[in-house]
Design a protein that fits this description.
Helix content: 25-40%
Structural class: alpha/beta
Strand content: 15-25%
CATH topology: Rossmann fold
Number of strands: 9
Radius of gyration: 18 Å
Distance between the termini: 34 Å
Shape: globular
């Protein structure tokens, strides 16, 4: 699942600007193009720490987010930006990268989350081999969901920054415009519907309260196993910073609040924006608040 062996992972480094780091995913999907993992590395001399930055889902959430990787590196942090599986070239041949990750029922989805998390853990391995002991993580939108799970599993991480993200997939699946492709899949294969989802999630509250580690995942429904709200209680609220967009049609406010509450109500800033416009209008604000948080 989430802690597949990474002992035999080998890295190939292309000395470009930024450097390109390649490795074979330790949790293979079976698709060669998906399993060839890639990350961009912004190196600096005498860093005060490192940051793993995780982009959002879709085909339009990559290039403009390099604003953060470039500026964190200018402010003293080696920054690593992995490309998630089923995104930006890491897609099965002939597939559309804008929706590849979100296609499939919950059993298929959980395997995609397993691979994404294992890839991020491998990137942390790489930074650790560079001799960096102050490693942090920052996730934007869908990347914030992956970041939450990674923080819960890896105590090498110091702090985490979660931007316009949330948890509890009952809210996200049925009330977000971003998950329409998932709803269409469910309609086609009849594997789920709002009523069945609600019935399954009647046990989510108790499962999240009791959850104490990944050894418990096998006892839970597959759609619980990749829900960031399930993992939230394993995070230290003092080491988490959140940003919530008040006019967000992609991450419903109830979803953002759910994750914030379950983490323990960490420091949070509200942005008077939508999901996409959070970066457009508040990128400098997000950057400055995040740097202040990391530098404390």
């Amino acid at each position: 699942m989430y802690l597949t062996s990474r002992d035999d992972v080998e890295f190939t480094v292309l000395n470009k600007n930024p450097k390109e780091i390649y490795f074979t995913s330790p949790y293979p999907s079976g698709y060669p193009d998906v399993d060839r993992a890639k990350a961009l590395l912004y190196e600096i001399k005498n860093p005060k720490g490192a940051l793993v930055f995780i982009h959002g889902s879709g085909s339009g959430n990559f290039s403009h987010l390099k604003y953060y990787t470039k500026n964190f590196s200018k402010n003293g942090y080696i920054t690593m930006m992995p490309i998630l599986p089923y995104h930006f070239g890491r897609v099965p041949y002939g597939c559309n990268s804008s929706s590849s990750f979100l296609k499939g029922n919950s059993s298929i989805m959980e395997k995609k989350f397993f691979q994404a998390v294992n890839d991020i853990l491998t990137c942390i391995d790489y930074l650790e081999k560079l001799g960096i002991d102050n490693i942090n993580i920052m996730g934007y939108s869908f990347g914030g969901m992956i970041s939450t799970i990674v923080m819960a599993l890896d105590d090498r991480l110091n702090k985490g920054i979660l931007i316009v993200t949330g948890g509890n997939f009952e809210y996200i699946i049925w009330h977000s415009i971003a998950t329409r492709v998932i709803r269409l899949n469910y309609e086609e294969d009849k594997s789920c519907n709002p009523e069945r989802c609600h019935e399954i999630h009647k046990t989510f509250e108790e499962a999240a309260k009791r959850f104490n580690g990944i050894e418990e995942l096998k006892k839970l429904p597959s759609c619980f196993r990749y829900d960031p709200s399930l993992f939230a209680s394993l995070l230290n609220r003092e080491k988490v910073l959140m940003f919530t967009a008040l006019l967000d049609p992609f991450i419903p406010r109830v979803s953002s609040d759910d994750l914030w509450y379950r983490i323990g109500k960490p420091k949070r800033y509200f942005l008077l924006s939508g999901h996409m416009t959070a970066h457009i209008f508040f990128k400098r604000y997000i950057l400055n608040k995040s740097l202040s948080f990391l530098d404390k």
